[in-house]
Design a protein that fits this description.
It contains 6 helices and 2 strands. The chain is mainly α and 174 residues long. Strands 1-2 form a two-stranded antiparallel sheet. Helix 2 runs antiparallel to helix 5 and helix 3 runs antiparallel to helix 4.
């Protein structure tokens, strides 16, 4: 609880720094497959941390009566990015080269971190007792309420899991 925005900023900075290592290693002719795997894994882990914090920060920023409208705008822009993103990425790789596109992606994370630093949401202070949370899920404490817990678990596993398993993953939260 608390410090969601700082967590998201740290995740953005971490992802930007990691992505910058690829063009640098490429320029030095030192890029390895192991580095690419490592960057992809850690960037993915930071994306999960960002996503969990993002869902929590949303509630702190948006007034309750505007949840539906804000959520539909957020999900609509996210859906658009899933559709248009790969095509735009391909065009950027053609124009800028792969290392250049990664540098632009890193710059987008820095822009995100800068925008997050510019807001001042009313976040609850961190609590040491973790009131209202249940057992940890992969080391992350999740809400005790069943619906919130299931939503958070699905955020952690993400839609990419469906491609790895060939189907939906059902989680036992009982």
């Amino acid at each position: 609880r608390g410090r969601r925005r700082q967590t998201m900023i740290a995740a953005d900075i971490g992802r930007a720094a990691l992505l910058c290592t690829v063009p640098v290693a490429y320029a030095l002719d030192a890029l390895t497959l192991e580095q690419l795997y490592g960057v992809a894994f850690v960037t993915g882990a930071l994306t999960v941390v960002f996503g969990v914090s993002d869902a929590s920060l949303f509630v702190a920023i948006v007034r309750r009566e505007r949840f539906a409208e804000a959520s539909s705008l957020l999900n609509g822009s996210r859906a658009f990015s899933f559709v248009a993103g790969p095509a735009l990425a391909g065009a950027l790789v053609q124009v800028l080269s792969a290392p250049g596109a990664l540098l632009l992606d890193a710059a987008s994370y820095l822009g995100s971190g800068t925008l997050l630093a510019s807001i001042d949401p009313d976040e609850p202070p961190p609590d040491s007792e973790r009131a209202g949370v249940d057992r940890p899920f992969f080391g992350i404490y999740l809400p005790a309420h069943s619906e919130n817990r299931q939503s958070a678990q699905r955020s952690l596993i993400g839609p990419e899991e469906r491609f790895l398993t060939g189907g939906m993953v059902e989680l036992d939260t009982g």
